[in-house]
Structure formats: structure tokens, C-alpha cells
Amino acid sequence: MARPIRQTPRQAPPPPPEPPRRKRSGFVKALITAAKLFGGAAFLGLVALVVAVGIAMSGLPSFDQLKSSPNGQMIRVHAVDGTVLVSLGPSYGQWLRSDQIPQVMKDAMISVEDRRFYDHPGVDPIGIIRSIGVRAQRGHWTQGGSTITQQLARNVFLTSNKTFGRKFREAIISLALERKFSKDQILELYLNKVYFGGGSYGIDAASRKFFGHGADHLSLGEASIIAGLVKAPSNYSPTADAQAAVDRAGVVLETMVETGKITNAEAQAAQPSAVKLAPEPKQNSVRYFTDWALPQLNTLIDDQTDPLDVWTTLDIRMQRQADQAIGADTPAGLQGALVSMERDGAVRAMVGGKDYITSNYNRAVTAERQPGSAWKLFVYLAAIEAGHKPDEAIVDEPVTIDGWSPRNDERTYSGQINIRTAFAFSLNTVAAKLGQAVGFETVADMARRFGISTPINTHPAMVLGTSDVHLIDMVRAFAEIDNKGAMVQPYAIEKVVGPDNKLLYQHTPPENRVLVAPWVAAEMTDLLQTAVNTGTGRAAQIGRPVAGKTGTTSTNRDGWFFGFSSGLTTGVWMGRDDAKPNPGLYGGRAPARAFADYMKVAVANRPVEQFDTQVTLPEWQLEPDDEAYYGQPDSGIPTIDANGQVIEQGGDQGQPMSDGGDQGYPSQQQQPAQQQQQGGGRRQPQQDDDWQGPPPPPAPGQRLDQNWLNGVLGRKGTATPPQHGGGTPQPNQ
């Protein structure tokens, strides 16, 4: 048997030798490592970005919360005719919804600020690359890569610091905004919040400031001006540089043509240079009024955040005339103030000084000064209420009260006169006697009753105005006389309107409160109009019934005039802030002239109002002016005395009043001896009583009038004819 053949396994051929590995260079290894690291970092960065955006989204306020104004309250103050007097605080206009914003405004803003607004996610990489390229070419940053969303994030949540940290946070918030809100919502927020210069935030505030109307109806030219402001508000503001604003608007129109939003023809027709700009409100004397009025808002409304329109009582025409009167009539080196109000308390004009810019100290409502003889208003009111009458006889004579002896000018006295005459010529001794009769505390109570808010002393000298007062308080008191003795509460704000024309406050007249009986106010008016017609206030005459009173303090530190006519009451003060003497300052001079200059314009369009009591001349001027004469009689016509005897010419007879006295009234040497022995005789008040001195007398010449006839017939009571306007009284012949 054959043996099987044993086969040995065939060995596989050895594998071919591997080619030698090429060693990688260090650079390649580094590059790969860097790519891996970059990829990992990018992945982690992306994760971190997503997380950061998510966190930012969760921390963002709601859309309604973002609509509120976080940068302060804007207040527009209007005059009674609607004119904007001043805008205060960051100016936020009405909030305009996306559908209320003109499309031309949206197109202009997107074209010039972010033409890829609807295509990017909040940050525009293409815009950033373009900005970097321009930076490389020109060596400095000439244009930013910020989108509208980024600008919104910066304006609302961040600052304008140019740091990479701020830019990174800005990008995160921008991405979050885009995730949380729609493009239309973002554009609405942006157009209502971005700063456009001049204190204006949002297109509506900018439109109202620069064009005088809301932004819900903008022309192409107006929209191009507003859109051009964002880049540099201070440089392109129409109120700062109108030509720069027009040039910038031209650039906006060109970009709108490039983006296809408008045609060339539309761009040429826009004509930004033809856009009418709203005039800037004056910032001078009206600020005295607004500074006084606006703090009252705290007691009228609760809203402290929303923009407000405050409608006030101020009349632009009256305010302008008040400013002019104070500026023109206040003596050089002195200050002046004026307050004018209706008999219902509405303040129509307020001037707190000659120039608000150099001094914002409001002398009309803040300063406290002695009122001098103007205080006699309260003395005579108390006397009338106690039963004294204007025609009641009273003796002007030396008087001493608790060691105090008031004097009349040159220490001369008039003897028996009536109360009307004493008030018209502001006799100090009579005021002292009346004050003593009714009680000085009674006079003080009367002043408090009429609204004097400052402390009042009750020393006897208080009847001459030694207690400090505010100008506006004194004006109020005189207005209450004009209001027939009823209370007047000064006020400045008629109404307050909030967003969407919501009425937040409307002034309502206070409850009528009677301070004195109407007949008391009427008799006081009788005295006041006599003072203007023939007494110390003659310079305040305006060609219609006026009632008023002058006031001058010792050594002429203060000059005052208060008066009313045709329903309007006005007070004027002049003096120095340091209370130094002012030679020549009398209430019957510059203050009375300023009153007249203002009131002639202020009441020009009002009907003439007659007072309840017709003016009655004081005892010293009972003859009409046209029956008076002065100076030497004409030659050939004799002067006859009371006994019918011809008066020889020469000496003092018939001569005009001597001007040797302090104010042009007769000197002691001219008064009859008997009169001097009695301590005076009837005469005009001196400096302390605000008398201005006589006006120029008429041409010399005798008049065949009642005086002459009385002399011929031997009638008693023939008086030396008075001068025009209530001149120096002379004793009966």
C-alpha cells in the first residue's frame, strides 16, 4: 500500500516592505494643532455666544418697558396762546408706533445708517469688513460698522466709550434684541429713542424742535434733515449750523437714490434748504416765570416720568412789554422787577430782574424788601373797615406814639384835612394816627388777611412799611381790592397734558372767600384812584381809570408802584440787591413810569372799566385844571385880592412856585407867618412821600375865572389856583 505523500504547507511570501514614512514638519504640526484649537475654540465660542445671547435675551426688558423714557422727564412749557416758552429736560416727543412713522422717514434712516438692516442678524459682518478696509486705506476710522440695532443697544443699555469691551457687549445685546424683537419693533424703538441734538430724543421731539410740528407728517426734505443728524448731532443741528444741516441732508438724499428708495427727480424736489425751521424760544425774562411756575407741578400731578405739556397763564405780548418797560425805565445800576396778574390770579407777566442770563435771582417772588408808603394800603383798609370815611376830617399835626414821632417831609403839617387828601399825598402823621386808632395788630391782621406771607412787626413805625414783603404778595393784595374785596390766589398753570393728549390737571377757581366787604374795597379804590389822579402816583396815568399807590423807603433804597386798571393789577419794584441808597429813586418816578409804559400796552385791547366810585379830588385841588393860572398876570389886567383891592405887582405875588425846596414845593420862607407858627399849612409831600415835584406850569397870564370873580365880590374861600395835575396847595387867601 502506497504511503500518502505528505505535503508541507507553502509559506506565504513576506509582505513587501513599507515605504519609509515621511516625517511631518513642525510647521504643519503646528498648523494642524492650531486648526484643531481654533475649531475647538470656535465651537466653545459659539456655545458661549449662544449662552451669552440667551442670557442677554432673558435679561432684556419687554417692548413696552423699553418704550418708557429712562433718561429723564421732558417738559414743554406753553404760553397762553400755545407758544412754547421753554423745553426742559431730555426732550421726548410723542411716541410714534411703527405704522405712524412716515415711510419716507424709515427709508431715509435705513439708507444713511444701515442699508442692510433687514438682512443682518443685528451685527453686519459685511459692514464691519468695509469699515476695516476704509480704516486701512485712510489710516483712521472714518465710518463705523454699527448697525441700527447696535446703536439702539448702545443708546439704551451702554455708554459711548470707544473700547473693545463695550463693542463686544454691544454686539451681544444686539443679537439678543434681534432674537427677541422684530425688525419693525427695533426700528420703532430706534426712531423714538435715538438722540438728534438740541436735547431732543426721538424723531417726534426733533421734528417739534426744528420744524414746529410732530413727526407723524414729515416731508422728504424734513426727513432727510432729521436722518442726517444722527452721525453728529452737535455739528449738523439746524439751530447750530443750518448750512451744515442742509449739506448733510443732501448726502442722505444721495444714499436714498443709491438704495432705490427715491428717484433723482424726487431728491432734487426735496430741497432741504427750503425747509422752514421753527424759531428758537427766547430764554431771557420768561425763565423767571417758568422757574417760579414749574415747581408747582409737584403739588398738581403725580406723573414724574412721562413727557408733559404745561399750559401756563403767561401772555407773550404782555411779557415782552414788561421786559421792555423794566429795561427802559429802571435807572442805571439798579435792578427792577414786575408782576402783573388778572383779578382771578392768573399771572400774565413776570420779570424778576433786568437780565436772567446774568442773574437768575427772581426779585419778583423771592426778594424781601420794605414797601414804604405802599404799606398804607393796609392801614387805610383797617381804618375804613373800622368806620372811617374818605371825606372824614382829620388833623395833620405832630404826633408821638410810644416815643416814636413820625414827620412829614420838612416837619411841616397841614392842619385839618380829610382822609382822602392825607392818602393822596401820603402823609405819614395821618397814617400813624389811623394806625394807632385801629391798633397796629389790626393793621398786621389786615395785611395777613390779604396774603402777606412774610413776618410782620407791630411797632408803631410799621404803618410806614417797615416789614419786608414779596412783590408778588403786594400785587395780590392790590388785585384783591380790584376784585371787590374777594381773595385772589396767584397761579401760573392752566392745565397739564400728558402723552396721547391725556388731561392730567385743569385749573379750577378756588372757593370765593371775602376778605373785606365790597363797600370797604370800593372806598379804598376811591382813595387809590385819587392818589393816581392828583397825588404821588400821577406818572402812572394811562388815559383810563387807574387806582394805585406809590412807595419809597428811607434813603430811597426801594421804589414801588402798585395799581390796577381794566381788570389787570401790576406791581413794580426798583432798587439795588445790596439795599444801598439810591438818590433820586422815588416810587412816583421810575416805577410809576414803568407801570404806565407796561399798562398802556397790556390793557390796550380791553374795554375801559369805570370804578364803583368816581374819582374825587382832594381838598387841595377842587378847581378844574382849566380854571387855574400861574405866574405874572398879563399887563393891563389887575390882580384883585379877596377884598377887591388891586394887588401891586412885584415881590412874591403871582409868582410861580419856588423850586428852592427839595421837591419844588414852597419853602418855609414862602409860607405865611401864621402858617409857619402853626407848624405848617397845606403843602405837597416831600421825598419820603414820593412826590415828584410840580409839572411845568402853563403860560403866565391872569385868567378871568371864578377866583377873580370871588375876589371882586369879596367871597371867602378863594384859593390860590392849583397847578396842573395836583400841584402845591396854598393856604386860602
Describe this structure in words.
This protein has 733 residues and is of the alpha+beta class. It is 36% helix and 10% strand. The protein is built from 24 helices and 14 strands. The chain has a 5-stranded mixed sheet, covered by helices on one side. It is elongated, with a radius of gyration of 42 Å.
| Helical residues, percent | 25-40%
Q: Biggest sheet, in brief?
A: 5 strands, mixed
Number of helices: 24
Tally of DSSP β-strands = 14
Distance between the termini: 199 Å
Strand order of the largest sheet: 2-1-5-10-11
Structural class, by secondary structure, is alpha+beta
Net shape:
elongated
Mean pLDDT: 79
Q: What is the radius of gyration computed over CA atoms, rounded to a whole number of angstroms? A: 42 Å
Residue fraction in strands: 5-15%
Contiguous low-pLDDT stretches (5 residues minimum) are 621-706, 708-733
Q: Quick gist of this model?
A:
The protein is of the alpha+beta class and 733 residues long. It has 24 helices and 14 strands.
